[in-house]
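User: My collaborator sent over this chain with a note saying "see what the structure looks like." That's all I know about it. Can you take a look?
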Amino acid sequence: MKISMASLANLHGKELESSFIHTVGDEINQVFLQIGGEWFVVVGKKGGESVEFIPSADPVTLDLELRRMPMIVQFEGFEISAIEAMGKELEGSGFEIKFSEFYDKGLIIQSIYSGTKPENFDDCLRVGVANYIFKV
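Assistant: Without extra context I'll predict from the sequence alone. Here is the result:
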């Protein structure tokens, strides 16, 4: 089940409580986010540029190798002000999650196929932080 952009809007004002990444070898395969008491997973659609943001079981109960990622952990405990799809709605290449306490950065989760894809990586995700400036 995919989540629509309207459903993502319902997550505004809720706190990012916890997060994990699931890796296969050295590739990020899934990103788990606990938002407002519910777990969600961002996963790349096999063979394509798009990702899905879908409800998930608590990842600790799944038989997966999980890791914490400081790039995501820095946003834990903060309120989500927006979740915006990158690319076409429902078939987007990723998401940017913005937090009300951070006016100068946001969390980005994208398909590895967004933009230039590194060699020897397939069907995985990349995670980044967007940095914004307001004054020069």
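A starting point for your reply to your collaborator: The chain has a mean pLDDT of 84.
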